[in-house]
Amino acid sequence: MKVSDFKVLTFDCYGTLIDWENGILAALRPLVRRAGVTLDGEAILAEFAAQESAQQAATPGMPYAALLSVVHARLARVWGAADDVAEDARFGASVADWPAFPDSMEALRALASRHRLVILSNVDRAGFAASNPRLGVTFDAIYTAQDIGSYKPDPRNFTYLMEHLAADGYQKSDVLHVAQSLFHDHAPANALGLASAWIDRRQGAEGWGATAPPPQGVHYDFHFQSMAELAAQ
Fold first, then answer.
1. Residues with catalytic function
2. Above 90 in pLDDT, residue 204?
C-alpha cells in the first residue's frame, strides 16, 4: 500500500496542519501568570486535554469557540484563579491566532496536485475559516464539528465524512485519513475501517500533549514525522 494509491486525503487540522499546542500555550499565558501556575508546558497541555475532552463529551453541539471559553473557565477553577469572562472569551477566539506548522502550506499544495483534499475538524466554521489562509490551499470539502453536531472521536464524525464522500462517488478504499491525534482521529478511523497516516508532530515527546491518551490497540498504516515527509511519497 502506498499513499499514491488513495484518491482522497482527509485531514485533521489542529495538531496536524496548525500548531495548536503552541497556540494553546500562548493563549493560556495570561491565565497561567494570573493563577501562578508553576506546571511545565506538557502538564498544562495535559490539563487542557482533560478539560477539553470532558467538555466536548458534555456539550457536543456547542460551537468550538464557545467550548474553548468554557474550558478556559474550567482551567481557571482548577488552578484557583478568579473568573474572568473577558479572558475566557479571548481564549475562545484564539484559534485564529494559532500558527500553521512551517511545512503545512507547501506540503498541501504538492498533495493537492495529486489528491482530493478534505478537512474533518473539531473546530467551528468560523475558526477554520480564520485558519485556512495560513494553509494556502482551497480544500475540496470542509466538515467541522459544528456541521456534524459532535466532536471527534465520536464515530458520528467519521460516518458523516464517509456519507458525504460516498455521495461524491468515493469508497473507503479511496480514502486515507491523515492526523496527529491517535485519540481523536486514528482510533475512530480504525473502527470505521479507514486507512490512516500518523503525522508524528510530537516526535518522541513524552505524554500526549493536548490530546487525551488513546485507547489500547490503536494503529495506523503510515507513520511520518512531518507533512513534508508525507508529501514526498
1. 12
2. no
